[in-house]
Every structure is written in structure tokens, then in C-alpha cells.
Amino acid sequence: MLLPIITYPNKQLKMRSKEVVNFDELLHRFLDDMYETMISSNGIGLAAIQVANPIRALILCIPDEEGNQSKESTLEIMNPVIHAPQGNVLYQEGCLSVPGFYEDVERYETLTLQYQNRHGDVCMLQASELLAIAIQHEIDHLEGKLFIEKLTYNRRKKFEKEYKKTLKEKK
Ligand code: Y12
Ligand code: CO
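^ thats the input. predicted complex w/ cobalt (II) ion below
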């Protein structure tokens, strides 16, 4: 089932999401719906709060060399904790909740992630490159933060200007 994605400036995006405690059929169905929703919107990552569910769950699927994003290769991440972040990197980010706006954001270059999978098993993952960046972007959603809040003053102004322009165009 496709879920509606909420967009800036919806206040729900500012909520801190709550720990996942039930790793049951309801969660599994929700994760399946998140995957369907992310793929149908051409996304590579989606946090539960973006579909108005304030739980600490996110999915990520970095396309392979052929551009495929299979369900099997999708990471389903609950209750994530970042360990040993290292280095810094600039990357142009986009977000399904801020459609049409892309900007450079500074992130850690590599990290170790502790999380729980859909069955509640504790897993560890070493991440670098786009995966490490996308993990940080999605974990920020769980804290109620959007990537536009990490922009420099001038880039944030650029965003406000573009956002106001899109509002006028919609009128
Ligand atoms: C860097 C950091 C984090 C991520 C993961 C989360 N972002 C996305 O998956 C964004 C997807 C996205 C897709 C869009 O739609 C199309 O391109 C058709 C899009 O454009 C519009 O909505 C107009 C914006 C974002 C990724 C990279
Ligand atoms: Co996002």
C-alpha cells in the first residue's frame, strides 16, 4: 500500500520519534509499505516519520550498478545508534519531504551503525560513501531534523527564497 509522504513545513517532521518495541506483523507490513512508497517516489531512503508514523524506523536502498533497488537489498533499520563516526564529507542531498530542493550538506565520512532488524535482532554495519551519508540523513529525521537545518546561513536563505517561489507558483 502506498503511504502519503508529508512535506515541509508540516510540523510532524519536527517530532522526535519513539523507540520501536514491537517487532510484529504490523511492523513488517508497515516496512513493506514504506518500501513500496519509497520506490514509487524514486527515493533511496525513507524514515517512518515522513509517512506520519513517529517510530524509530527507516529504510535505505542504494541502487546497484544497474540502478536496481531490490527489496532483498533494502536495509530495514530500527532503533539505530551511530558509533565511531570519522572524517567529513560534503554531498548534495535531497529529501522526499523537501521535494525539488538539493543542497550540499557536511556529514561524517564513515561510521559504524548498531540497529535492530525487522525481527528485533541486534545488527552492526560498517558504512561509507552514500550509505553513510544517507544513514545520517535518515537518523536526523528520527530526531525531527531536516537537512535544510544543517545548511549555512546563505544556503538556507536560498532555500527560503526557492520555497516561497514554489508557493507563489502553486497559487
Ligand atoms: C543524500 C542523502 C540522503 C538521501 C536519502 C534520502 N533522499 C531521497 O531518497 C530523495 C529522493 C528524492 C526524489 C525525488 O524525485 C525524483 O527525483 C523523481 C525528488 O524530486 C522531487 O520530488 C521533485 C527529490 C528527492 C539521498 C541523498
Ligand atoms: Co529526508
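The chain has a mean pLDDT of 97.
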